[in-house]
Design a protein that fits this description.
Length: about 375
Amino acid sequence: MILPKLMQAVVYRGVSNLQVELLPVPKIGRSEVLVRVAACGVCPTDIKKIQHGILLGPRIYGHETSGRIVKVGSSVTGWKEGQRVGLHHHVPCLKCHACRHRAYAQCDQYKQTGITAGFEPAGGGYAEYVRVMKHCLPGMVPIPKNGTFAEGAMLEPVNTVLKAIRRLELQPRDHVLVAGQGPIGLIFTRLFKLYGMKVHATDLMEWRRQKALQMGAASAHDPTSPEFESQIQELTRGRGVDAAVIAVDSDEAVRQAQKLCRGGGQVCLFAHTRRGVLSSLDFSIPCVDEKQLLGSYSTDITLQNEVARLVFSKSLDVGELITHRFPLEQTGEAVNLAAKPTQNALKVMVIQEEAEALRNEKS
């Protein structure tokens, strides 16, 4: 396959400064592959990095990525040109102390971003081509014939949700509060429903509350309503929820969840990813009431097969969540919309050469 020498890429140059630039197509080593990007989701983690300047530029962000393999290193086995794949930019070693404790996101290898379009590796999905390094090859997931590039790009975020669910000690018919019904919150709502839990969803936006009900929530609430807490007590017969997931970066949502959680229950932080932000906590709640406060971050490679089954079987129909698609050169607009969603906006994706991508989805 003849590849171009240059490609378009959206380069982060500083706080909220994204520039469309021409860069060399990445060169791969003998143990690497080159992927032509077809789709890349806009993730809240990247939004924070772009809008708060958490890391220095230049970098090329975008990590919820899928595409087609266009070049395979001479030492790579099991993959070939033309295959459609979903990518994971962090993959653990599965051998170290952290991995033996299933703390994969704390593995030193995991912390080394293994997909890049240039500069310091940062995912690279907002570019036409990405280089997948050797240690991230196990994170490539083949997209079946009935699957789409958009579904392939959603494998990574769905994996992060399933990982968090597996951290909770839940039983069928338990009551779970999911705070925030953006794309991630809605994935939580749907998966909890699939696994037999009763979901009580909250969001400030009425449209998202209605969407949560469509995705399987038993009830949906405005968390600022004076009746909200009494409604949860009534729905749980005065016991409180067994667990809560905070899928929105809100300290008030955490405090509210701790109050509504039963003694011995669990509150999982999923969206509080920005370091250095302090908040108050009544330590008697986790101590005396035994309400656990735990976090969950990023993916679990051991869940890849189950995630692929959920997504490609459409048991979790991620297509319902994708409301806006932008071309690569409008990545800045895509990020802005995802950061401040308008009415009816959920998952935002950057789709490259959409007509070609849609045609390839059928091949």
